[in-house]
Amino acid sequence: MDTSYWENLLLTINRFFGVYPSGKRGVLRWIHSLWSLFLLLYIWIGSIVKCLEFTTEIPTIEKLLYLMEFPGNMTTIAILVYYAILNRPLAHGVEFQIDCIISGLKGKAKRLVYKRQGQRTLHLMVTTAIFHGLCVLVDVVNYKFDFSTTWSSNSVYNLPAIMMSLGVLQYALPVHFLWLVLDQMRMCLKELKLQQRPPQGTTKLDARYESAFAALVDVGGGSALMIEEMRSACNLIELVHNKYLSRFGPFLVLNLINSLISICVEFYLIFNFFETPLWEETVLLVYRLLWLTMHGGRIWFILAVNEQILEQKCNLCQVLNELEVCSARLERTINRFLLQLQRSIDQPLEACGIVTLDTRSLGGFIGVLMAIVIFLIQIGLGNKSLMGVALNRSNWVYV
């Protein structure tokens, strides 16, 4: 099966959920735009109705954090739909640039890159489908197969969650393509390093060492030319990555903030459950654990997929430093490449200049998470000690 099959299938699914531009023009494009707007309005209306109907008696700060998920979902989905309707040229332009970068590879390397990308796409697509299918199933069981209630709940919670997960994949997979090209460069440099081994039995004290080494490594400047082409391709990869990040920056920032707030609320609600367990609500606990896994996984995935690019550049630096230099031209080429990589490594990518996109930011996310959760727990304990509490069979009722 063609390795591009899975990418095309994922893009078709994204178009159905209104988060990717239509590949057609004319009437079909208008139909797709209207469908995307319908999904957006459907989610907005459902979220607003849910906020208005939320009347549970809980502290104001907890209620505020709980309800912040809805405007976060609404804004994030609006950004995705905007990209799907009005930002079509930019999306296809970036795809074309990535294809141009990959077309510069040799035939075998190009096939390997497309094969690995197809496997990665299939893996993420199946994982996403299984996870969200499980969330929908648990939601149905939680509401005891009540069709109207389950439909409303899935429309407000799971439908936006699926669209945002597809939006994350839409950003992550092209970045993974760029990572594969960098990885292919690293493999080529390692092959060059192996070729630099002198003939069998020749030592550095042998008079034949330098001449044999120069003839093997840099005949006609071939090695320098290859490394120079890699340097140009690496520069183009960085430009494409920055362009792609500037397009998805607001979406990534909102996604990370929204997920962080949702994790805080879910942690607090799970703490309340284990403080006073009501085992008839075990299904709801499973639902909260799934939601916690989804938001935590999104934060880690967004940060990790960008850190892979940084790690690959560090690996390129290491292999370049291990190469033996036998000509002034090769030395200049390697030094320029190293300088370019070092400058890129020293300037980590940031989404809208707010969030540094690598896993080192996890420490900051965890610190904010613990501070908010502890704050909510202190408010809950203070309310209980001041007002007292009576336990109803399904929830806490403040008296």
Count of DSSP E strands? 4
Mean pLDDT: 81
Approximate helicity band: over 70%
Query: Shape from CA axes?
Result: globular
What class, by secondary structure content?
mainly alpha
**Helix count, per DSSP?**
12
Described by strand count, sense and barrel closure, the largest sheet is: 2 strands, antiparallel
Low-confidence stretches are 386-399
Total number of distinct structural domains: 1
Question: What order do the SSEs take from the amino end to the carboxyl end, as H and E?
Answer: HHHHHHHHHHHEEHEE
Question: Strand-residue fraction?
Answer: under 5%
Radius of gyration, taken over Cα atoms and rounded to an integer in Å:
26 Å
Q: How far do the termini sit from each other?
A: 65 Å
Lateral strand order in the biggest sheet? 1-2
Subcellular location: Cell membrane
Membrane topology: Multi-pass membrane protein
Family: Belongs to the insect chemoreceptor superfamily. Gustatory receptor (GR) family.
InterPro entries: 7TM_chemorcpt
Give the gist of this structure.
The protein is mostly helical and 399 residues long.
Notable characteristics:
receptor; 4 strands; transducer; two-stranded antiparallel ribbon; transmembrane; Gustatory receptor; cell membrane
